[in-house]
Amino acid sequence: MIIDGNLQSEKLRKKIKDEITKICKSTKDVPKLSVILIGDYLPSQIYVKNKEKKAKEVGIKSEIIKYPETISEKEILDKISNLNQDKDVTGILVQLPLPKQISQKKIIRAIDPKKDVDGFNPLNVGNLASGFEAIVPCTPLGCIKLIKSVEENLKGLHAVIIGRSNLNGKPMAQLLLKENCTVTILHSKSKDLKGECKRADILVAAAGVANLVKSDWVKKDCIVIDVGINKLNNQLVGDVHFSDVKNKVKAITPVPGGVGPMTIACLLSNTLECFKAR
């Protein structure tokens, strides 16, 4: 089974649009997402434009605030402070990566946790890890929704995550623990990656290595979620060798068309949740 991320994201976006339509009948206020984009990095420009388009489709106001690559850290922090205080702004997102003169840690900490639609602020990270109410990072949130579109009850399943980043691997582990999975996190210093992956009922690949996972790395009936986006021979490929693995496993996400669309849909969902929590 191929998990259609476009279809699942369309379902989520429709649900969001329906809810915003209901909200608009009782109030003039609507969710508003402010995105800060720094520099001319093409993938970021494309991604942000796509976010803006999808936001408008569901009824979320969206603004892109563009700055040159040479912008100072202070100017960005001042802008974030203004957005934090702006009652019309529901969600704030600063598109990564950032120029070297700007500290990612400082920027993430500066965003009001209640408007942190990316879920990267340490308060949201801590709340998620502690099992409290939190804004969840969009990609892991999208991944768990894709997994549950295949298997609703994950209790007792062995989940293996390749990658331990703060953006993907760590929050993914927290979400899977919340579903009562047994969770293993693998990384560049782990021994016997292949052996560990072969034990997985759920495998989430977020290593950033093209075609790392082959068919002899997975067992039959495994659910495979491919977070990787890599360029290989002028083609986009994931961390999983799709053609090699797809006929062996229970379900797998393609690249592109898997996790990516769900990440954007979950950003819109987080923006709506921030609006409702005001």
The CATH topology name of the largest domain reads: Rossmann fold
Question: What series of H and E elements makes up the topology?
Answer: HEHEHEHHHEHEHEEEEHEH
Uncertain runs with pLDDT below 50, 5 residues or more?
A: none
Strands ordered across the widest β-sheet: 5-4-6-7-10
Tell me what portion of residues adopts beta-strand conformation: 15-25%
pLDDT averaged residue by residue: 96
Number of strands: 10
Gross morphology is globular
Tally of helical segments: 10
- Secondary structure class reads alpha/beta
What's the gyration radius in Å?
19 Å
Give the N-terminus to C-terminus distance in angstroms.
Answer: 40 Å
CATH class of the largest domain: Alpha Beta
Structural summary, described in words:
- This protein has 278 residues and is an alpha/beta fold.
- The protein has 2 domains: 28-112, Leucine Dehydrogenase, chain A, domain 1 (Rossmann fold, 3-Layer(aba) Sandwich); 138-259, 3-Layer(aba) Sandwich (Rossmann fold).
- The protein is built from 10 helices and 10 strands.
- A 5-stranded parallel sheet has the order 5-4-6-7-10. Strands 2-1-3 form a 3-stranded parallel sheet, sandwiched between helices. A two-stranded antiparallel ribbon has the order 8-9.
- Helix 6 packs across helix 7 (169-178).
- The protein is globular.
